[in-house]
Amino acid sequence: EARRALGQSFAMSTAVDGLSPEEQQEKWLEEGKAVTKQQAFLMKRALDNSNLRDGLKYASNMLCEMRTGLLSPKNFYELYIMIADEMRHLEQYFYDEWKRGRRMVELYELVQHAGNIVPRLFLLISVGSVYVRSKEVSARDILKDLVEMCRGVQHPMRGLFLRNYLLHCARDKLPDVGSEFGDNVADSVDFLMLNFSEMNKLWVRMQHQGPVRDRERREKERLDLRILVGTNLVRLSNLEGVDCDMYKAMVLPRILEQVTNCKDQIAQQYLMECIIQVFPDEYHLRTLDEILEACGQLQSGVDVKAVLIALMNRLASFAKNEPGSIPPDVNMLDIFHSHVTRMAASVDLAGILDLQVALLNFAMGFAPEKLDYVDQILQVCGEQLAASGSARVDGAAERAVVSLLKTPLISHGNALTIILLEHFSPLINYLPFSSRKEVAMLAARMLSKGKVPLSTPEEVDAFLSFVQPLVKDVAEDEGQREELDDEDLEAEQSVIACIIHKMASNDTGVLFQMYVVARKHFGQGGARRIVHTLAPLVFRSLKLALAVKTLERAEQEVSVSSKKLFGFSLETIKGLAGSEPNRALRLYLQGAQAANDCEEDKIAYEFLSQAFILYEDEVSDSKIQMELIPIFIGTLCNLTHLDPEDYDTLITNTTKHAARLLKKPDQCRAIYQCSHLFWNDKIKHSDGKPFQDGKRVLDCLQRSLKIADVCMQSGPHVSLFVEILNQYLHYFDAGNDKVTVKYLQGLVDLISEHTANMDASPESAAVKAHYASTIAHMKAKKEGDEAEKFAELNI
User: Fold this and answer.
1) How far, in Å, CA of 359 to CA of 311, rounded?
2) Number of neighbours of residue 125 by Cβ within 10 angstroms
């Protein structure tokens, strides 16, 4: 009647036409806040004037707002927080009164005269909090009295918030080890367990109030309020006096009794997860059987799988972070395995796989060295997948299989060891292409960055078979494949190329067999992949050939000959020639250099012959031709063990190709470069004389000079004459009797004439600078020790 007279309460308000439910909630909340604010102001003013009677009246009016049944849990909580904050002032006043000598029992009795039970109990809790601090009566008696009296409010939402207020006020006044309010922690356990059981009953009761059509809304409201119930368990876990023995004997059995007896799906789901999260891992280790047994007694709608997964994941993390803390008498692997096996019949394929993922996580954290247990889990998963009859999985099952494959790879760190497990690799076949590729890339990256090499052909075969989506053009699942751009493909194949460099063995024959296996796999990769994978394989086989040749020279026994390795390299390059002739040609020249270093002149000649054949058949781009001719020349100039006749055939062929270049300036430069092939002191005739043919050198220079003269008709190409002059000067210095002073003099006169007529430009400046440097060099020769040789030169 007093509240109605005030005209400000919304407890009797009705829905306003035209407002949505959200707007109505907002309106009711604002009305409640307005009343709370006003009554709190009046309460504080009365208390400041030492008028306790009026202060209690206004506090009671304010607390009457907690009687509403109109607000949603979220808005009710917001109003509750505001009122609880205002109640601190009243509690402080009670404390000050006690300090001034007033007995707390008087105040404890005084507040019980409030007319309504909800404000009466809120006031009683506030006084009781100070009563405990006064120590006039034991904390146990006061807390027991308060928790019993709270049973007077049986409305679920009001009762939950009332008991939460009690829990909040008592949080620092619970008897505990080292507490000023007593050290009998059993009293605190009794208080918290009684409060927990009553709150859980109120929370469950919410499910059965109201019509069936509002069930979904009620379930949402219950989920919003679940933290109020869980706070009791948090307080229990914070008690210092609750050790593992007390937890096992007194706390957990009472909690589990409440959980199983409530027979409510939402409550059981939340409270089991709450138990796992709030209590220490050491306690779970000692009570594992009890928790798992309780899981078997939960309602059929409870997601026991999620509970087990949460428990296993937490214990796995604990075992990983605290490896020495696991009791030797606790065989958790077998305990969990037996429970997971029993659950398999009641969940679908994705659920089974999720459980196995959690079990695998747990096994890798708890006992990472027990890979036989990991393989056992993988075997169970393989059997379940085979029984499902599906060639490919998707959705949740796909994600679970990916986790089954990724988890041991990441946890163990040694990708090769995991892949070699008997039941690991077959699981990847149940994944679609994109997921197979994802797992394969993880394995490839881990192996390439790890320190453990591939040491046998069987290991190479097993690994490359596992990462097949990265190595081979897979014909199946075409609809799921996406074409990678060149940059992404290169990044992907670079990882695979690194795998080649992880192959190692002290036995050259074993290492060669590893390369053979690798080539078999890489050969199925298609034109875009083999460009990246066959090239490093060629370099590694050439390196092995050089090592074997060293052993052969030392007359040591070898299981594979250097010639066989060169043949392997030759065949590997041929596999690349069709898709990437430019790269294959360079590899042929690299092979020729390696064969020459091994003094295998016939093999070197074969590499060079294949290079020329490839050049003639496949290379038609003039720009690439011009890039390759100098590489041919450089390679031939560096060879030391070719037969002179074979060498002559090769350099003649090179010169012909140089003369066939498309652009005249390119022809000119390529031909004067070829002149060095005919003046090579590294190639020896049978009589020991170097391969030096002055006439053919001069022929090359004269031919390039004629081409340069033709070039002058189409534009200023004086730079060609300067370059040719330097070539003549080189051979004149080297003692080629076919190159005489008259050739030098003719060129000097010709260049001087052309440079005098050149227009000013950056290009002409560069040519003149080059020519000036050449003239300065010849002058130095003429004035130095070789004056007689250069005497006839007029510069």
Assistant:
1) 10
2) 24
Average pLDDT, the chain: 90
Give mean pLDDT, residues 774-788: 89
* 690 strand-pairing partners: 684
Which residues, at least 6 apart from 655, have a Cβ–Cβ distance to it below 8 Å? 671, 674, 677, 700
Residue from 438, 443, 407, 414 nearest 312 by CA: 407
Q: What are the residues whose beta carbons fall under 8 Å from the beta carbon of 136, sequence distance 6 or more?
A: 103, 104, 105
Reported as type and span, the H/E element at residue 263 is none
Per-residue burial over 502-534, b if 16 or more Cβ lie within 10 Å, else e, is bbebeebebbbbbbebbbebbbebeebbbbbbb
Q: Name the β-bridge partners of 691.
A: 680
Judge contact between 166 and 145, C-beta under 8 A.
Answer: no
Structure tokens at 612: 């020329």
CA angle 348, 353, 359 (to 5 degrees): 130
Distance of alpha carbon 751 from alpha carbon 408, whole angstroms: 75
Torsional sign, CA 517, 520, 524, 527? positive
Distance, CA of 127 to CA of 120 (rounded, Å): 11
> Is pLDDT above 90 for 654?
yes
Helices 304-321 and 349-366: crossing angle in degrees, nearest 10, is: 20
3-class DSSP assignment, residue 330: coil
DSSP secondary structure code for residue 113 in this structure: G
| DSSP-assigned letter for residue 677 | G
pLDDT single digits (tens) 238-258: 999 999 999 999 999 999 999
Per the DSSP assignment, residues forming a β-bridge with 503 are 454
Whole-angstrom Cα distance, residue 197 to residue 148? 12
CA 235 to chain centre: 38
Query: Coil, strand, or helix at residue 577?
Result: helix
Nearest to 294 by CA among 335, 253, 236, 330: 253
Contact, 423 vs 404, CB < 8 A?
Answer: no
Count other Cβ atoms within 10 Å, centred on residue 411. 17
pLDDT in tens, 387-438: 988 889 999 999 999 999 999 999 888 999 999 999 999 999 999 999 999 9
Considering only CA atoms, which of 409, 328, 424, 413 is closest in space to residue 378? Answer: 424
Report the DSSP beta bridge partners of residue 684: 690
Q: What is the DSSP string of 467-522?
A: THHHHS---S-GGG--PPPHHHHHHHHHHHHHHHTTB--S-HHHHHHHHHHHHHHH
How far is 377 from 485, CA to CA, in rounded Å? 38
Cα 716 to the chain's mean position, in Å?
59
- Interior angle at CA 595, CA 590 and CA 599, nearest 5: 145
Strand segments, DSSP code E, in 190-297 are none
**Backbone phi, psi, residue 229, to 5°:** -70, -45
Q: Look at residue 213 in the predicted model and tell me its pLDDT.
A: 77
Q: pTM surpassing 0.70?
A: yes
Per the listing, tokens 């469950």 go with 204
The SS3 of residue 668 is helix
CA distance 384 to 350: 10
H-helix or E-strand spanning residue 691: strand 690-692
Distance CA 521, CA 471 (A): 7
Residue (of 794, 767, 762) closest to 778 by Cα position: 794
> What is the C-alpha separation between 325 and 341, in angstroms, rounded?
27
Start-to-end CA span in the chain (Å): 127
Packing angle between helix 622-638 and helix 644-659, nearest 10 degrees? 160
DSSP-derived letter for residue 683 is E
pLDDT of residue 158: 93
Residue with tokens 């007359």: 555
What's the CA gap between 265 and 299, in Å, rounded?
6
Measured CA to CA, the distance from residue 452 to residue 185 in angstroms comes to 55
